[in-house]
Amino acid sequence: MIELLTNTEMAEADRRAIAGGIPGIALMERAGRAVADAVAARRPLGARVLVVAGPGNNGGDGFVAARLLAERGYPVRLLLVGDADRLKGDAAAAARRYAGGVEPAVPEALDNAGVVIDALFGAGIDRPVEGLPRRMIEAMNATAAPVVAVDLPSGINGTSGRVMGLAVDADETVTFFRRKPGHVLLPGRLHCGRLEVADIGIPVDVLAHVRPTTFLNVPELWRAAFPVPQVDAHKYARGHAVVVSGGLSRTGAARLAARGALRAGAGLVTIASPREALAVNAAASLAVMVRPVDGPVELSAFLEDSRLNTVVIGPGGGVGGGMRDLVAIALAGERASVLDADALTSFADNPASLFAAITARSGRPVVLTPHEGEFARLFAETLEQADKASKLDRARAAASHSGAIVVLKGPDTVVAAPDGRAAIAANAPPWLATAGSGDVLAGMVGGLLAQGMPAFEATAAAVWIHGEAAAAFGPGLIAEDLPEALPPIYRRLLAP
Q: What is the pLDDT of residue 333?
């Protein structure tokens, strides 16, 4: 269940299920039952249930949940935002089956609730919440009772994860068939609480027609392409990654990247170091090799060795024309390239030249790994409406425009490919936000690319492993800890 369906895709899945012979009211009954089961599993009989229902199908799910909980012996009140006479279709049918009273929605009614079911708005809300609905959301957020949201907390757009003015802070969310991007992207994810995905009978084969291109970043997405060391393999069969170092005062970032590449499984890793920093890089590296390389001419000569099949450039490299020249050399060759940090910022004044160099590479993979600040500098002209686009949309547009795999980093890191595929990570702990962690990630991407893993899958895998390693290490993490936390994660991935 790794597919993330947009509002439009989920509507199409519903439509195809109904066209295939499953009545819409049957889907609504199963959805409402899933919500009722979630409430009953955590609240004892006798807990006062208050359902806040809206005028659409989300409200219809609420009517079903209210009826089923009342049948089980729970005291239930249902507050309707809107006019019962104006309910349509399956929602109207669900309302007719509910024998309890329907009360006008007033915020004060939530004061004595034991549990609240938020069935106000569905995932398709695309305008700011105002008037009575806003007051009801404020009341749900103010209540001491736990809130169980139907599909998505009201006020969250399911496709973008945006808060439409105000949103419910749910303790638990029950969604149906598949997650939506809004369950994973921030800020939507922060409003969902515990998330349950309920099977309501939509056939899995509808996905072949819906053809989703957005996925939760988990091993099921890329495990089949993950490089598994073979008994008869040797280090040269596992690729040779090069990390380009900055000057004497900026060597730490390259060493972090190099260690990340080595721990990610590259057979060999070499730091291409300016001579002024050679002693520092050599003294601080054991399994990582160090070679003297000054400037673009020497880097070009060094990279003529075809065994050097991946280059990571940018961490601690310095911003300016010198870095642009080094990037041009890296992109001119026959190897995979990972551009991070200073390699991105150096093109802020002329991103078109970078994108032209990338698209001229005839399919040889390039990965860009910006955080939000670097992304804004590099793609400002590409995304004129960036303030109105979701993180997913921005990453996709950047990948399409640049011709590269784009990693838009953050607590909901998005990996986007030029062909439209995207993966959203939800496993990064807060303590991953520490200096140097991005350098390690760039190196890990390079290490997986060096082993021949396809670029989108390699990048998504590196992002997931990076988050898992941080979570396993726990609070107090610093960037140096990340490579050393990888072995247990690899043992889990490679276990038979």
A: 85
